[in-house]
Amino acid sequence: MPVDQQTLPLQLTSSVHETRVDAVAKSAARTVNDLQIGESAVIGAPSSLDATIVRLMEMGMTAGVEVTLTRRALGGDPIEISLRGTRLCLRRADAARFALARARETASQG
User: Fold this and answer.
1) Does the global pTM surpass 0.70?
2) What is the 8-class DSSP label of residue 71?
């Protein structure tokens, strides 16, 4: 029996709509996870805080810092970024919580 839109509770349909809207909004904003190898950008503040994000901030991932994506693992996770003269590996999910304030030209790959 097919489900009719009118039979669904209002709360369910609105949460589906909100999820789609959130997905569109998130796709428009670039994050550290979206950088290409060799690309640099200045990061903004994280979207949310937990113990892992606080620790990354203690290690130098603060708003206004320039980061460069240096490598990705074979499966794409984790990634390695360069910032403040050091390299840092982090999960893509954590990198996605740092929005890019502005991006710079992609460095030539050789």
Assistant:
1) no
2) E
CB 37 within 8 A of CB 70: yes
Gap between the terminal Cα atoms of the chain: 58
Return the amino acid letter for 110. Answer: G
Judged against a pLDDT cut of 80, whether residue 83 lies above it is answered with yes
Contact 17, 25 (CB under 8 A): no
% of the chain surpassing 90 pLDDT:
57
CA distance 98 to 42: 10
Domain 32-103, CATH number (from 1.10.150.110, 2.40.160.10, 3.90.1720.10, 2.30.30.90)? 2.30.30.90
Short-list 75, 86, 31, 35, CA closest to 53? 31
Q: Which of 102, 52, 61 is nearest to 84 (CA)?
A: 61
